[in-house]
Amino acid sequence: MNVPRVNLLGFDRAGLEQYLAGFGEKPFRARILLRWIHKRGETRFEDMTDLSKSLRARLADEAEIRPPEVVERRDAGDGVSKWSVAVAGGNAVETVLIPDRGRNTLCISSQAGCALDCAFCATGKQGFDGNLTPAEIAGQVWLAVRELERRGDERGLTNVVFMGMGEPLLNFDASVAVANLLMDDLAYGLSKRRVTISTAGVVPKIRSLTDHTDCALAVSLHAADDALRDWLVPLNRRYPLAELIDACRAYLSHVGERRSVTFEYALMKGVNDSLSHAAALAGLLRNLRCKINLIPFNPFPDADFERPDASAITAFQTCLLNAGYTATLRATRGDEIAAACGQLTGAVRDRTNRRARYIARLRQPPVSAPAELPAR
Ligand code: SAH
Whose CA is nearest to atom 20 of ligand 1? Predict the structure, then answer.
């Protein structure tokens, strides 16, 4: 019988130690192997000459180091590259490399599509077909690092954000294992401030995050009142703002004084971009150690939303700055190759039928905010 090989790309240090212990191997061999796989990018066990011949032979029999297959690649003029990689179930997910002033940030996907269906996000409109494996998530990083090596980029990878397709906290174990691998000196050696898990607000998982990893947290907020957020981020109906903010406070109490939570806020014209929305946001986040990252809405085909005018964006940001917040504006990068926030779609076999429903709805007159939303 053909037993599938174990893909070692997805193991963090603890996982690899456990795997090797199954062969009666000492934990330090996991360290050697980690370095070969992630630092040197070696995929052939026979070339790992500081491992015993018998271990190499056994690994060659039972395991593999198999990065995901790239099905499409697009390069934008501004140095941004986007890969579409094949994952299980005939799906493809997207990964984006964003070089920017001394940093090389990689935006990785954690699920095939997304189950959350935020009103303004292209990924949600694609539907959902399940979790990626740790190897499929870590494989995206592995590929990007090899690309930077090929480019002769001396800085290498500096930041990784779980802000591609999917909700990482709904693929918790895999996302945490990859975050830990990213921070492991023997693998990618990124600092805990430079590995960020972004969530739409899965409260119980935010609460347990610090038991499993020390990486940074970003929360996709987009609205400071429940009625508006219920509409934009349907997950809010399950975990409303008060619970979400409490969970962020609990996270902060575990990670130490000098760390903060990043709140992402996609600005949408006439929806959440007025000065009263900015004031409500400033009120909601009072006394919370945080940074606010404003993302001007990125359009995608048939989107129901628009990007606000530059003057409205500046006024919103100024209001937050005047209230004493660190509020940055995320530069829109890669939108000509549909690689900006919320534009990632890949090719997902939709088990939820949501894509078909979305397309059917597009044929009907446009809908805007539900009637019960507060007048603006
Ligand atoms: N599910 C996680 C990870 C996705 S991160 C989360 O929600 O945080 C992707 C980020 O881009 C999120 O902050 C998301 O809200 C934002 N986003 C989605 N669609 C967008 C769009 N069309 N324009 C700008 N930002 C968008």
Answer: 342
Q: State the Cα torsion 304-306-312-314 to the nearest 10°.
A: 120
- Kindly name the residue from 107, 121, 319, 341 that is annotated as catalytic: 341
Tell me, yes or no, whether 319 and 356 share the same domain.
Answer: yes
170, 222, 298: which to mutate for ligand 1, most atoms within 8 A of CB?
298
Residue 86 lies in a domain: yes
370 inside domain:
no
Please indicate, yes or no, whether the overall pTM of this predicted structure exceeds 0.85: yes
Nearest-atom index, ligand 1, CA of 341: 11
**Under 8 Å between Cβ of 73 and 82:** yes
341 catalytic per annotation: yes
- Is 319 catalytic? The answer is no
Same domain for 204 and 283, yes or no, is: yes
pLDDT digits (tens, 9 = 90+) for 240-297: 999 999 999 999 999 988 999 999 999 999 999 999 999 999 999 999 999 999 999 9
Nearest to 217 by CA among 196, 231, 195, 200: 196
| 105: containing domain | 70-361
Are 274 and 316 contained in the same domain? yes
Centroid of ligand 1 to alpha carbon of 198 (angstroms): 9
**221: its two tokens:** 């907020």
Whether 170 maps to a domain, the answer reads yes
Instruction: Estimate to the nearest angstrom the gap between the alpha carbon of 99 and the chain centroid.
Output: 17
Contact 56, 45 (CB under 8 A): yes
Q: For 5-63, how does the pLDDT look when each residue is reduced to its tens digit (9 = 90+)? A: 999 999 999 999 999 999 899 999 999 999 999 999 999 999 999 999 999 999 999 99
260 within domain boundaries: yes
> How far away, in angstroms, is 339 Cα from ligand 1 center?
12
Residue 298 beta carbon below 6 angstroms from any ligand 1 atom: yes
